[in-house]
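stage 2 :: seqdesign
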């Protein structure tokens, strides 16, 4: 969206209306505001396309519930971005972003060549630059959550042993695998339990951020992204 529409967007933020072009065509629509920050329908669509590309799924296969969840994710994402600005935050390095982009590319068949990769991006409805920006933000969010919540997690040896006996071994035996000693898998179990606890803390943190924020949804009648004109 070019510069001349920015003022119009600011003026219409509280109204939740579509932004028209001089000819009267609808170019974009405000779908939510978070503490005064506008989330546009184009932001929603871009997030859906890039998330589908990261997951290796065509955007058209997303369900209505997944689309709604994506908007809630954008709202949570904006709340966390505010926390980045409020602290001395270290963003993901270019090397880390490049590694993640390479992983995404590897999961798409035929993407090993430049033309094949471009074909994947075209099918996803995105560009390499847009996807890289999306990936960088997701890595930033992960770093923020880890830095904020991981230090508060303490997984003791009893919890690891309990998971080993009650979850790990039964699943391993059910799949026909041979038993492995606790000491061999203890670090992986500890990391798994840590991630589970971090996720629990994240849910509580986001609920707290939402309760103290001014959030307003302005969904279009279909509750799903429409085609931009």
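stage 2 :: out
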């Amino acid at each position: 969206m070019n510069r001349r529409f920015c003022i119009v967007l600011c003026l219409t933020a509280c109204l939740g209306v579509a932004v028209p072009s001089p000819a009267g065509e609808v170019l974009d629509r405000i779908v939510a505001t978070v503490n005064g920050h506008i989330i546009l329908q184009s932001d929603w669509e871009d997030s859906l396309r890039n998330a589908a590309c990261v997951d290796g799924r065509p955007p058209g296969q997303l369900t209505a519930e997944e689309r709604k969840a994506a908007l809630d994710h954008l709202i949570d994402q904006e709340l966390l971005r505010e926390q980045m600005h409020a602290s001395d935050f270290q963003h993901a390095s270019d090397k880390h972003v490049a590694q993640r982009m390479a992983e995404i590319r590897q999961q798409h068949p035929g993407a090993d060549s430049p033309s094949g990769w471009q074909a994947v991006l075209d099918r996803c409805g995105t560009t390499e630059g847009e996807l890289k920006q999306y990936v960088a933000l997701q890595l930033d969010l992960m770093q923020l959550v880890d830095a904020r919540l991981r230090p508060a997690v303490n997984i003791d040896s009893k919890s690891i042993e309990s998971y080993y006996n009650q979850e790990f071994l039964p699943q391993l035996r059910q799949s026909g695998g041979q038993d492995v000693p606790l000491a061999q898998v203890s670090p992986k179990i500890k990391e798994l339990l840590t991630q589970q606890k971090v996720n629990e803390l994240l849910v509580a943190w986001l609920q707290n951020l939402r309760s103290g924020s001014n959030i307003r949804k302005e969904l279009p009648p279909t509750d799903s992204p429409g085609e931009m004109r």
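stage 3 :: structure notes
- Strands lie at 18-20, 26-34, 37-40, 215-217.
- The two ends are 12 Å apart (CA to CA).
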